[in-house]
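Q&A log
Question type: sequence-to-structure
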Amino acid sequence: MSWLVLASGSSGEPWWISLIKAAIVINLVLFGFAYLTLIERKVMGRMQLRYGPNRVGPFGTLQPIADLVKLIRKESFFPAAAIDVLYILGPFLAAFTALTTFSVIPWGPGWTIGGYEVTGYVADVSISLLLIFAIGSIGIYGFIIGGWASDSKFALLGSMRTCAQLVSYEVSLALSVLGVVIMAKSLSLVDIVAAQGADIWYVIPQIVGFVIFILAGTAETARAPFDLPEAEQELVAGYHTEYGGMRFGLYSMSEYINLITLSGLAVTLFLGGWHGPWLPGPVWFIIKLAVIIFVFIWMRTTLPRLRYDQLMRFGWKVLLPIATVNAVVTAILVVWI
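Response status: OK
Response body:
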């Protein structure tokens, strides 16, 4: 059996266990994305004094499957002047990068199953936080390429807005987690969770960074009130104006999976990850994840969309200075204390 034990990271875990975990995590994230669309519509419906989806299946529970069937059967039209390869590549690139980033987020302490040590993460990378930001930056190209390759002025304007917004708010997002990195003295998400288990959750000393992370993350995922890339009143639909069928579905999927990943990252960095009393680690992780996602849905339901100039001003003149000051103050306190 020694030939099976090809180390996967420092844990010495067999490679085939990592493959099984990767398959399980990907399918769970896809399942979560599908039913997050239903949950969001249900929650928003209740907040707006209506029912939401309730026709397909008991209480509307089969609505995501109906949506999938609808998207598959829709005609995949193709603009005559579109750049073929890039037009098709855009949504696939966005979806691939969205699914990849969840691989380094830890969801449990690890277990011994059948004599094998099984860790609570797919991969432990020493610079996993940088890896998430790097892959997220590549994902931006999926939106930009899709809008540009569509050969549509509305789609091009939407992709330009997307590029400007995501690049602007990614700076604040990166600075908001710098205080956590300084306190944990590591870029590994596994080490950051372990540091919170031994001390306190970083949401307490880093409450400013947490608030900035949520706000900047809302802009990074193009959620209301920062959904300017898809401002339908102004740009028809933004960068995916010329997409239909499953190509549009891939863009929609990437946005929701990015929301799940961002919420999981918030739980990992600020809310102690999988740590919690009595219940198993993965259960605590899912509970915290659900709370953060509910906050995003709440914001979408209650806050009006900003104007584009307000969006950029808020990112560069409010969030960025506060995030910088928070990182500097944290560094000074860590050195002195």
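Response note: The chain is about 65% helix and 0% strand.
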